[in-house]
Amino acid sequence: MRLHSLWQMETRHGSTAWWALRALWRDVRKTRLPGETAILDAAQNSAVETRTRPQRALGTLWLASKSLRPSGASVLGDLRHSGCLKALFPRSAADRLSGVLINTSGGITGGDDLRIKAQVGCNSRLTLTTQAAERIYRATGDTAGRVDTLIRVEDGGRLDWLPQETILYDRSVLDRRLRIELLGTARCLVVETLVFGRTAMGESVTHLRLSDRIELWRDGAPLFIDRMRLNGDAAAHLARRATGGGAVAMASVLIATAPDSPDAAAHLARLRPSLPATAGASLIRPGLLFLRLTAPDSYDLRRTLLPVLAQLNDGPLPRTWMI
To answer: How far is residue 257's CA from residue 264's CA, in Å, rounded to a whole number?
Structure first.
């Protein structure tokens, strides 16, 4: 009523009432109802955070394989995914289920959070790879991009974990963990490849924060734990003879068979003569073979790595490796 009366005064008596109306409006804006202050302040703070906080990629994936009876074919048992993680299953041999993991965000940067869980059922075989090399881009702050992978392999099952290279760009920050749990006579083949910049593009990684952990367990006991922490000038660290010897690309390959199986030792005898001087292989314990390969670039690394994986995989590699 009071505002309406002042508006009538404005139309009848000119600008005098206008200034009175403005003063009244200022008083109304200063007076807030109970709880209105908190709501308005929260909205303003949310708007500020939205403008300053960049969007981050979140993704979760769960999948499981199982063995069909009586054929013994490995098929998909369960699949759930959300966010930027997806999985495709191209045609493959009947004795294994092949899955291709896809990160639709196009790469990983600081603040991204990807979580993968899988289960290999009894007497089934699951091969997991990636659509392409994963790229770890420059982070805008100190927050790391996280990739957590947990895979459980039941008795009699086999896992082939064959992702393509992970390319680290300058000023990238990555925290990555891979844990594989074997039960009974379960087996696995694992490869993880790191590339510190693309040499063909003249890139050099002089600022890096990397935490990379690979764990292999059997029946609740640790078989193999490998952890790498690399902070600062990666190019300078890798140039040292005791670390990388000038290498820019490196791969870790791990194959675990049943403890009483001679397969791991047989693989070592066949592979060792063909390995270059920049690679090494060791039978850590019965049924557990570990290889580490280094190279001046990712192309030279692939020329050594592909024949090794083809032998350990007991068949051709996933087609995405050949594109």
So the answer is: 7
Cα distances (angstroms) measured from residue 13 to each of 3, 18, 290: 15, 9, 93
Rg, the chain, Cα only: 29
**CA triple 248-102-94, angle to 5 deg:** 105
pTM exceeds 0.90? no
- CB neighbours of residue 32 within 10 Å: 12
CA distance 172 to 169: 6
The domain spans of the chain are: 2-52, 58-322
Note the pLDDT tens digit of each residue in 144-163.
999 999 999 999 999 999 99
Q: Which of 175, 88, 102, 177 is nearest to 136 (CA)?
A: 175
Please, what is the angle between helix 298-312 and helix 263-271, to 10°? 140
Bridge-based pairing of strands 134-136 and 166-168 is: parallel
Strand (E) or helix (H) holding 18: helix 15-30
Assigned token pair, 314? 């007991």
For residues 99 and 90, give the distance between their C-alpha atoms in angstroms, rounded to a whole number: 7
Q: Residue 38 has what DSSP assignment?
A: H
Question: How, if at all, do strands 249-256 and 288-295 pair?
Answer: antiparallel
